[in-house]
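Usage

Read records sequentially. Each one opens with the input sequence:
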Amino acid sequence: MKGERVGRWLAAARVLALVAVVLIVASGLAAGAEGPRAVRIGTDVDAQSLDPRLQRDTTAYRLNNLIYDGLIQLDENLTPRPDLALSWRQPDEKTWVFTMRRDARFHDGRPVTPDDVVFTFKTILDPALNARFRSLYEPIETVEAVGGDQIRFTLKTPYAPLLNYLDLGIVPKDVGARDLNANPLGSGPFRFSRWERGGRIVLTANDGYFAGRPAIDEIDMIVVPDNTARAQALEAGDLDLIMSPLSPQDVSRLAADRRFRHVHLPGISITYFNFNCRHPVLSDPTVRRAVAMLIDQNTIVQQIYGGIDVPATSLLIPSLRWSYTPEIRQPAYDVDGARGLLAEAGWKPGADGVLAKNGQRLSFTLATHAEDSNRIQTIELSQNTLNQVGIDAKASVTDWPAFIGSVQTGNYDLALLGWTILVDPDRAMYGQLTSSGSLNFGRYANPQVDALLARGRAVGDLAARAEAYQAAARIIAEELPYYVLSYAGFDAFATSRLSGFAADARGFLRGLAAP
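and closes with the structure output:
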């Protein structure tokens, strides 16, 4: 029944994709002789919010990077470059001063001022807003406008990764009754035009952009949830650009098609299992370790993901070479070892064959979202293995909004999902795995990990930071609040209309803003 439901959903997704294609063709978007006037991009999920302070999915990240400007931009090498800030200096280890440009304007014509920067960061730090990434900015003590064009950040403690996080879009301090979630107002190279919920989000070129009006008139972000339907739309000429997540069979096929430019980059993303550490049985690190040993990582990565991703060893990402070490390793796939570990911990088969201990059955639900067929297959394979050793593992597949809503409220057992844009180990670990972290959905708590992650963001020396993150990752690989399945690679395919487009591993689209 479950497979039939998934099959029906995928069939419905393909119908939606075809409807989207008809709409695209009907809109008459076409390339001029000098290049594309409108670019059609396929994405897997609809955005939840286009307020950069509240963004929580890759579609929103990618669009907000076009709608808004940050104080800085990270280039394709993750190097900070000027954006709203023309320059910056660090008078001491707890002070940063930024000098802002004076020619940036919001899309309604008002100038971008230091007061807007102050407002943006003060609201992020206000718990009432419930900003998803508030933990990235909590070391900030004050943000002040200094003179007519400067911003001063005063920190509670030294904070090494701050500069990498200041690409956050700046919002205007006075928006009145305007809802930035659904009607964003930025100063970036493209302005928001319209949003057909579940279907498409359209941006148009900002004629008054300080770096010059983009050559492209319009960006049409079209929601096509099914990976294969999205690839087929590219092949049919109805999309100009698609990016990860993509199905491995589609990547192989498209890579061999000379009509498309293929970009493959080492990713700065992970796919992982997030354990709810307050669950009656998953609260036990021994059980979590046994479950990790029943996840057939190599089969999943090589066969389901088609070798696009790389099997992970820990939470440390190889792309961030200064912090990564292959010596830290999660448990390997070992069915017999997992059986023995559970038996030693007192889990014995009951009358129905399900393992039990002190009257508690070893039962939980694996959850993921319906938009990613690879994750669905991973859940099904893992469920089958768990069932074979006497664990009553159920599966839950829902659409992205329902799934992520359950995860964020802690209403889940074991969830398969991912983190993207991990530009620093701090971004992968601090908010997610400190006891009070705003992204610690599984409520993991370890004072030693708290101290190590606090040290990792406070010290400026890279070697000392690496030492702290490696020590924390070693504990996490042992206690397993996270089991990191893979380091996700990044793939993008573009038609010849976008021959000059430069992709980066985050999937950001600033390359489309060239004058």
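Summary fields computed downstream for this record:
- The domain at 267-488 is CATH 3.10.105.10 (Dipeptide-binding Protein; domain 3).
- Residues 1-34 have pLDDT under 50 and may be disordered.
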